[in-house]
Amino acid sequence: MRNIGHDQQKLRSFWQRIHIDVPLLLGIIALMILGLFVVYSAGGQEMAIVYRQITRLGIALLVMFTIAQIPPLAYQKWAVPVFVLGLLLLVAVLLIGHVGKGAQRWLDVGFMKFQPSEIMKLIVPIMIAWYVSQFDLPAKTSKIIMAFILVLIPTLLIAKQPDLGTSLLIASSGIFVIFLAGASWKLISVCAGLVSAFIPVLWFFLMKPYQKQRVTTFLNPEQDPLGSGYQIIQSKIAIGSGGFDGKGWLQGTQSQLEFLPERHTDFIFAVFSEEFGFVGVSVLLSVYLMIVMRGLWIAVHADHAFTKLLAGSITLTFFVYVFVNIGMVSGLLPVVGVPLPLISYGGTSMVTLLAGFGILMAVSTHKRFIA
Amino acid sequence: MASNKRVAIRNHSAEANLFARRTFIAFVGILVLLLILFSNIYDLEINSYEKYQTRSNSNRIKLLPVAPNRGIIYDRNGVLLADNKPVYSLEIIAEQTTDLKKHIAEISELLDISEEKQQKLFKALKSKRRFKPIELHSRLSAQQVALFSVNQHRFPGFFIDARLKRYYPFGDLTTHSLGYVARINRKDSIRLDEQNLAEDYAATRNIGKLGLERYYEKLLHGTIGHQEVEINNQGRVIRTLDYTPPISGQNLTLSIDIELQMIAKRALAGKRGAVVAMDPRSGEILAMYSNPSYDGNLFVHGISSRNYRKLLNPKNNRPLLNRSVQGYPPASTVKPLLALTGLEENVITQTSRFYDPGWFQLKGLEHKYRDWWAPGHGWVDLNKAIEHSCNVYFYNLAYKLGIDSITDMMEKFGFGDYTGVDILEDSRAILPGRETKRNRYNKPWYTGDTISIGIGQGYWTVTPLQLAQAISILANKGEIKIPHFLRSTAELVSENIQEERSNTDEIIKTGSDVNIVTKMITKMTEYDDKPPIILKDNKHWNLVLDAMHNTAQRAYPAFRGTHYDAAGKSGTAQLISKKQDEKYDAESTKEKQRNNAMFVAFAPYENPEIVVSVVVENVLEGGGGTNAGPVARQVMDQYFGDRNIISTDKNKHPQHTNVYGIDKKIGPN
Q: From the list A180, A181, A240, which residue is nearest B49 (CB)?
């Protein structure tokens, strides 16, 4: 640091003073702008949708900026009470939640509807990171089992709503902490075994018919090309027909002629691939990779076990978003409701996502030698 | 800070190392997963591009068939006989309407649309897509079209659709020859499928069902066109990508002369019967009319069951029947042909005579075959036999000939077989002979049967068309022409004609060195005629024709005073057999059992241009000469118009001599 020129140091210190990690911000902004173009194309070329998305992005950026100002170590104090509160809210959702699209996810709190599972995406990694970081690393098996239980409780509550996508993301955010905390490979393989043993239980007792259908459709979409298989077939047609350089912006016939369902939300990647082709996809995946690399860099350079684990988990979970979404849209994974981060149209997940980036920025900028 | 202290005790760098290792492993995992995503996308977008490109196109691109215009039909002078007329229907696109119920109520009041139709529309609204047009009223009148056009601005989503429908301007005058088109039904669809034409008819609604419309369906239909459109997931057309225009069907020019046809209709007014007029030189049918007739237009829009029942009702004299191709006993009209057979078989000569006491009797049998002229004609030779239509002469002739030689010759003249005319309603009728009787009635032929055949009665029917063909062959002295309606076809053909100019500057100026020229190519239709009938002695033709000439000139008042030189023969067919010595009395005979009147004629005698054959069913009074003769005369008068064609040796045949001194109305039958 001392070798860096005076002006540059001054510049850097400005961004550090307002707790913004510039490379991360650039990556995020780049994806957001790209996303607006795709949303315009996928949303029937209506500016109204774009304005609404801009508003959401603004709010989400504001949330990110605000959270970036909070020293990350402060979360440790609040981890337990907030986690308990979160669990209570999840229980409340199951008892008195608002039913929408065949699942109970929403809690009506008078002036707005509120989705507790969304905040749990952040509370769970905070909680697990706090729990694990209290002890020496690598964590002992007993602690890790305890941590597993802590992950499992909200995961099951959310899976029961049922919201497979979110419970998957929450489970992975917790498991990533455990993995990064140095859980022994033996333990990891045992857990993997347990999870595979759990799959039949999941299939026969926990999954709702529509979720089962998604899986069977995933395994053989052509079985019911006009029914449940329609979406994934149309999505693959959209991607495949994009070819090397795509059909061009606003020229994707699959999306513009409405053959592709949910094209501006979960399936926006298909629209993007159709219009921008393999070249566009390469650029998109590169930007995602850059963000992930920056996130991991921040985690590795964090100065505290808690912040390391938290930043690592948030970054890896972000990648899970990307992988699951693109995987399902391109037919590698069954369809679970996971949006393409920073591109898909929609509010709730965007705010949570940027709150996560806010934490990453806080970890990157609130360092002891600066504080 | 307390936590800071705790951290300080821990092995900070070991933890950092562990974390960095784990992060690195995670990063490798990320790279692997990204690679999987990447290779999957590569597979979809690069390896399988063509497959998905095709599927994407088949999603969005649809080929809409465009129906070709049906060929138009003209008479020989270019008068329109079958046209395509626009019909207007009121249609609604639900999606574009603002207040559907109110507007339908209003427009129904304005255009007087029935409650039933409104209900039908509301029903259709439920099952059809909201952007697809639904018909509220078909066949708007000109007044309704005008009323709607003025008020259209008040009814968004309502519009008038124009479609071409077949129209026969002469209505019932042409139906028996033209036939008609009607909606393609299941049977038609199956046939089209079998002929691999289903695709070509994808947009076509009507198909030829009868007559020339059916026979020349292939020529008239044309070739389907296609509109390539882009559609969205709802099937809504977004835009047209490509258009291949349909090729109209060929226009047909018929040999029919509509004015002659009109005269035929007028001449048959109030009678049941048929007229066929044809040109013996070519086989062209100049007129074919069967009375009563019906309006083919009724079928184009789908005939109502009430109208159809009316057509089927026997009280209305069965207008659906094309009498020109129905079998009738030929009666005396075939006497000239029998005489020819006699001459040819050396059974008689020009001067052979038979004595007619008023009846004929087979040896050893009681039954007397009566002459129509009870006192008898006395000694009769060939000429007198034909002129006076002497039955006894022909009884003798037939007896001498025997049935087999009659069958052979009559077959040569086309009896008992299809004429080959270009409508499928043609009939074979019944050829007299052993085989026919065996096949049809499973009975042997008796000599007595042969006697009746001598006067064109018994097991013998001919169609007026067959009769016209047979007389044409006679008038042509053996040359056989296939009767037909189609004279020529006309086809629109586009041709690329290479610009002959080699001046490059000019080519650049016009931007193209190819001109597309569209022109109508008219092709005369050619017919393969049958080999002629060759007689042992060609003079026999003249003997028989001469006798017919004399007959027309002297025997019938109907052909008195013509300014052309006609030849002809009448016939009066009995439909019920009389008991021995019983007298026929029309008044007491049931209407449907009364005699049929027949007449055949050709003119000019020297170089025949027209042959006419007439049948009038169930006449009350008189016979062929008085009932059918005048019909033939009127048709011929119309045909020749003011042309003055009088035979040069006119003096040889004094005009009509009343040889019997009896009521002129009767005359020889």
A: A240
Q: Are B400 and B342 in contact (CB under 8 A)?
A: yes
pLDDT, tens only, A144-180: 889 989 999 999 888 888 787 888 889 999 999 999 9
Domain ranges within chain B, ordered by starting residue: 64-254, 324-482+531-652, 486-524
Same domain, A290 and A241: yes
Same domain membership, residue A92 and residue A43: no
DSSP string, A148-212: HHHHHHHHHHHHTTT-HHHHHHHHHHHHHHHHHTT--HHHHHHHHHHHHHHHHHIIIII--HHHH
Domain B64-254 coded CATH 3.90.1310.10: yes
Rounded-to-integer distance, Cα B162 and Cα B149, Å:
13
Angle between helices A305-329 and A348-365 (to 10 degrees): 150
- State the residue range of the domain holding A27: 23-69+221-365
Contact call for A239 and B41, based on CB within 8 A: yes
Taking CB atoms and an 8 Å cut-off, how many pairs form between chains A and B?
A: 142
Tell which of A207, A230, A256 closes a domain: A207
Peptide bond into A209 cis (omega under 30): no
**At which of A183, A207, A231 does a domain end?**
A207
Whether residues A169 and A91 share a domain: the answer is yes
Q: Are residues A99 and A47 in the same domain?
A: no
Q: Does domain B324-482+531-652 have CATH number 3.40.710.10?
A: yes
Say whether both A260 and A179 belong to one domain: no
Number of domains in chain A: 2
Q: Alpha-carbon distance A11 to B7, whole Å?
A: 31
Most B CBs within 10 Å, among A241, A269, A288, A321, to test the B interface: A241
Residues A247-284: tens digit of each pLDDT: 999 998 888 888 888 888 899 999 999 999 999 999 99
Please list the residues that pair with B568 across neighbouring strands: B601
B129 touches chain A (CB under 8 A): no
Distance CA A121, CA A155 (A): 10
What is the residue whose two structure tokens read 């046939």? B191
User: Residue A215 falls within a domain, yes or no?
Assistant: no
Query: Would you state the structure tokens that stand for residue A307, as one six-digit string?
Result: 């912040």
Question: Do the Cβ atoms of B133 and B157 come closer than 8 Å?
Answer: no
**A212 assigned to some structural domain:** no
CA atoms A143, A146, A150, A151: torsion sign: positive
Same domain, A199 and A240: no
Chain B residues with CB-CB distance to A267 below 8 A? none
Q: Which residue of A has its CA nearest to B238?
A: A257
Please tell me which of the candidates A240, A259, A308 has its beta carbon nearest to residue B51: A240
Alpha-carbon gap, residue B628 to B268, rounded angstroms? 9
Which structure tokens are listed for A152?
């499992």
How far apart, in whole angstroms, are the C-alpha atoms of residue B360 and residue B375? 12
B61-114 per-position pLDDT tens digit: 888 888 899 999 999 999 999 999 888 888 888 887 888 888 888 888 888 888
- Confidence (pLDDT) at A310: 95
Q: Is residue A229 part of a domain?
A: yes
Q: For residue range B429-487, what is the model confidence (pLDDT) as tens digits?
A: 999 999 989 998 899 999 889 999 999 999 999 999 999 999 999 999 999 999 999 99
Chain A residue numbers with beta carbons less than 8 Å from the beta carbon of B52 are 236-237, 239-241
Is A9 inside any structural domain?
Answer: no
DSSP H or E run through B446? none
Statement to judge: residues A348 and A302 lie in one domain: yes
Regarding whether A105 and A49 lie in a shared domain, the answer is no
Contact call for residues A292 and B6 (beta carbons, < 8 A): no
